[in-house]
Amino acid sequence: MKRPIEEITRENFAPFGVLVEQPTEDAHGSGPGWRWWAHLTTLAGGERPYALGYLDLQPAPLQFDWAERHLHSDELVIPLGGDCLVYVAPAEHLDQPDRAPSFDQYRVFRVRSGQAVLLKPGVWHGAPLALDAPLKALVVLLHNTGQLDCSITRFPEQPVEIVR
Description:
Elements: E1 2-7, H1 10-13, E2 17-21, E3 29-31, E4 34-36, E5 50-57, E6 63-64, E7 66-69, E8 75-80, E9 84-89, E10 107-111, E11 115-119, E12 124-125, E13 129-130, E14 135-142, H2 145-148, E15 151-154, E16 160-163
């Protein structure tokens, strides 16, 4: 199975979450060397605080053989210093946390430097992928999500190849 890279837009990513990027409307405030837009999106919270994670991404084969999902936490992915790829599949069958999506449900999006994605709870995804150069990424999600709210599927015999 092969999946193409899609240019991300607010509309085509909407089923999976929110695309966060510099707004096109007028800034809410500004000063010398800065512009500010308030309330781009909110992270739904619960009893746990949010945690920041840091990813060091290096170029590797453009394929994936696993995915995870969190039923009770949004996940914000912010690439730093370059573009990355995110692969996602819909948040379906929420009453069956370990029920993996079919391969044809996965989509691959390019997230450009200056953009971020907020994944909805239940969306299947994996670690972002570097394209041609190393980059870093920040990840925001509820504290201890990996231990308390994580379903994982692995398919090493049938990795999904990403085509440019």
